[in-house]
Amino acid sequence: MVSAGQQVWQSRDVAGAIGLDEPITAGRDAPVREHVRAGLDVRLRAMVRHDPGTRLGEDPEELHQMRVSVRRMRAMLRSGRPFLDQDWSEPLRAELGWLGRALGPVRDLDVLIDRLRQETADLDAEERAAAARLLSGLEVEHGEARFELLAALDSDRYMTLVQSLAAAVRSELPGSDLDGPDELRRLVDKEYRKLRKAVGKLGDDPSDEELHALRIRGKRLRYTAELAESALDVKPLLKAAKRFQDVLGEHQDACVAGQRLRDLLRALGDGADGTVAFVAGRLVEREEARRRDRRAEWPAAWQDLSNAA
Length: 309
Prior knowledge:
CHAD domain; 2 domains; globular; CHAD_dom_sf; coiled coil; CHAD domain-containing protein; CHAD_dom
């Protein structure tokens, strides 16, 4: 395991590897690739800024913000793909995907563990002890995921990725010089049409998996609109897309939490006494109630997003 002192030293080295000067900006009429470049610059700086806190692991928000930065850089490269040299952009996007997968398990467990701890806070002492036994497997899993995360951040592969991103924002990105606003509007409209088509294919009672896929579509629309924010008036769309994403995200969180609780109970086997089983059932029912509530709420969130598009 890497010590705290080693983590901070490595983080300073990462920050030094960027070597950027003033922040990059893209004017309203700049080519799409310049908007991508400006977006990468903002998110790269944020990623490195949250690197030290992610390594230390004392504040889960640090990892959350680092992961968001990675996701949005990847999304920018995806959205701007028609206007970029894909021989350059796709390998970089793939490496960001690797980093996102390294960060994801710890972040997901941070959210799940915090969620379930809050849910058990109002139980009596005996039930809280039973809940601790139920959730102990998540703590072990979290420790293992943290080890993998730190190994990724201390790897040459991570440093190479940081340096590649820094090199990208220092100079013009390879790709098309097509005008900015019109092309950005087409990108946003394209993502909206994909989302609208996906919604139209849903039946009256979509599955949990279909709603999760819809959330991913909504996230892509939101991130594409963020790319266009400096050239287009997309604030109403961004607000509506965030709500749509949040509602479906909470639905997915409830689905995942319910299933993980069932898995944890099964994993305990004979070690799950009546109190543990009771607590697990109580927590699962709460997650089921949340899942039903968000399922009923998402059509209104979609209508708001459709009106804003």
